[in-house]
């Protein structure tokens, strides 16, 4: 159509091609996954010196939530266990001042099989 920019339409002259990994002059870097961990990561947040992430590992005898902090080139496991909950799933992680993290998700207890909202906060 005359007068319509080609491509994705978000800016004149856009070609609509796939990202090249260099948006606005910055580059993407691949970070190796923690050893021996399977599953999916659902959420990530910036922390001083790196990032923190939460997800889900379905590879064991029972599915389990996973959480990690990646700083200065190495992974550390986050303890996401909650006393009294049989099953827990975390969908988001948020950084807070004072080197604190909050993981948001849902869990159930032996008294209630329905999943209820759950927020776990602590030093990450």
Description:
The chain contains no helices and 7 strands. The protein is an all-beta fold and 124 residues long. It is globular, with a radius of gyration of 20 Å. The chain starts with 39 loop residues before the first strand and ends with a strand. 15% of the residues are buried.
Descriptive keywords:
mainly beta, four-stranded antiparallel beta sheet, globular
Task: Summarize it.
The protein has no helices and 7 strands. By secondary structure, it is mostly beta strands. The protein is globular, with a radius of gyration of 20 Å.
Our count of helices gives 0
Strand content: 35-45%
N-to-C SSE string, H for helix and E for strand: EEEEEEE
Helix-residue proportion: under 10%
Q: Report how far the terminal alpha carbons are from each other.
A: 54 Å
- Count of extended strands: 7
- Indicate the mean pLDDT: 77
Which sequence of strands runs across the widest sheet? Answer: 1-2-3-4
Largest sheet: 4 strands, antiparallel
Low-confidence stretches: 1-23
Overall geometry comes to: globular
**Rg from alpha-carbon coordinates:** 20 Å
Alpha-beta content class: mainly beta
């Amino acid at each position: 159509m005359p007068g319509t920019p080609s491509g994705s339409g978000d800016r004149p002259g856009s070609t609509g091609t796939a990202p090249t990994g260099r948006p606005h002059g910055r580059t993407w870097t691949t970070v190796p996954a923690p050893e021996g961990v399977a599953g999916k990561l659902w959420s990530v947040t910036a922390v001083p010196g790196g990032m923190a992430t939460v997800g889900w590992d379905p590879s064991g005898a029972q599915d389990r939530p996973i959480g990690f902090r990646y700083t200065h080139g190495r992974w550390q496991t986050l303890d996401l266990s909650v006393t009294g909950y049989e099953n827990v799933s975390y969908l988001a992680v948020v950084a807070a001042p004072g080197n604190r993290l909050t993981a948001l998700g849902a869990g159930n207890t032996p008294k209630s099989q329905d999943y209820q909202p759950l927020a776990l906060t602590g030093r990450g």
